[in-house]
Amino acid sequence: MDTIAAISTPKGAGAIGIVRMSGEQALAIALRFFTSSRIGSAIDVEPNRLVLGTFSDGSIREKCMMAFFRAPKSYTGEDIVELQLHGGAYLAERVLETLLGAGAKLAAPGEFTRRAYLAGKLTLDEAEGVAAMINAESEAELREAYCLMSGRFDARIKGLTDTLVESLGVIEASLDYPEEMADEADDSIEKAKAVREEMAALLDSYKAGRLIKGGVTVAIVGKTNVGKSSLLNRLVGYSRAIVSDVHGTTRDVVGESILHKGVKINLQDTAGLRETGDAVESIGIERSLAAAKGADVVLYVVEAGSHPDETDLANIRAFSKRVLLVNNKTDVFGASAEGLNISAKTGEGVGVLLDEILRVTSVDARAAETLTEERHADCVRRALRHLDDALAAFGQANVECVALDLRESVRALAEIGGEGATERVVNDVFSRFCVGK
Ligand SMILES: Nc1nc2c(ncn2[C@@H]2O[C@H](COP(=O)(O)OP(=O)(O)OP(=O)(O)O)[C@@H](O)[C@H]2O)c(=O)[nH]1
Ligand SMILES: [Mg+2]
């Protein structure tokens, strides 16, 4: 395989910039430009140590550090060289250019991790965990990503797969000796049923896992002037949207994200709902309804003491299953009997409102091992379907079908770790990485 090189740190000025190379030629290429009083020849380079030296290609000189990781004890399983340079938009680019000129090939997005996967250093779901760690924007996301990356999730899936493989072995043997193995076959089906329950629970956790990964999207809707923008501003902690006592102040959807108890919440303030002859405002109102449609939770805001508009509410309930009634301005109008009472002005009740958003979406920042990746959910869904077919076939004493469906179920589960995954699936996973990882 070619020796690949890339800048592993973000573009722009920073304290350090790292250029990384992986492959057989990595050290040889680096030593054409990197010199140090501690290194006479390639043989002197001690792995896993930082060495101070100078990178020079005749036109630029840079005092920097080099680290060498010898195959197979490296991230990719190949020889790796990392040059730690002074951070700078141009410097790292320039060093990379020199390395490419000396025979290294520019790494594709995720190619280092892809090589690690091909070398068997990590499974496909662990690699997805690496990408998830990099992209994590909240405590909850980070926790789930770590669970993936560290192999904890993979071990759980392997546990389920192993039990199914065991059951499959017994069922296959019972094909030849149906009478002698009847009890054992019953036993193994009981075990498969337990796996089925765990798989169903796992799949169910995807509803929350999906929200942990992308954040919970919350649309703030209601009549004009009820204090929607004021609520947004209160939640984000600064004056994000214009607030005024003029009805119809907000025309567009105003979005901003916050973190609450380690979970990302994507807030969307919207134009107030009312009959209007104003063309621009009408478009705004259409956008409000579209935002409500796309949201995981809708906050329907009214002034405390007044009733919600039943037509609006029915409209929104028709396409959103999580609608919270929020009574605002309790500082003036007092609390209502129904719904959540808040004051955007004083902040009263706002913490409870945020807790309620997490409660209705079943998102728990402390939970780990929820299903967060669509690809994994798809594998579990298929595995579950085949397992259900297997269990049904067992009920009809159709043992050959049981074996067939069990095998399919095992296959679908194993795909999570990458076994039997198609080239397209693998490409898709690594295409979501950044360059240099
Ligand atoms: N006393 C009190 N006044 C509030 C509260 N929330 C909002 N207001 C006032 O109500 C008026 C309307 O507030 P906005 O936040 O602009 O209302 P809105 O729902 O975004 O209005 P539109 O964008 O026109 O749909 C402003 O004068 C706010 O100061 C509250 O909790 N208490
Ligand atoms: Mg507004």
**Assigned CATH architecture of the largest domain:** 3-Layer(aba) Sandwich
Order of helices and strands: EEHEEEEHEHHHHHHEHEEHEHEHEHHHH
How do the strands of the widest beta sheet line up side by side? 3-4-5-6-2-1-7
Task: Extract low-pLDDT stretches.
Answer: none
Whole-number count of domains: 3
Biggest sheet details: 7 strands, mixed
Give the class from helix and strand content and strand pairing. Answer: alpha/beta
Globally, the shape reads flat
**Strand fraction:** 15-25%
Number of helices: 16
Bound molecules: guanosine-5'-triphosphate, magnesium ion
CATH class of the largest domain: Alpha Beta
Question: What is the number of strand segments?
Answer: 13
Average pLDDT confidence is: 95
Beginning-to-end CA distance, first to last residue: 17 Å
- Helix proportion: 40-55%
In CATH terms, the superfamily of the largest domain is P-loop containing nucleotide triphosphate hydrolases
Give the assembly state of these chains: single chain
Radius of gyration: 29 Å
CATH fold-level assignment of the largest domain: Rossmann fold
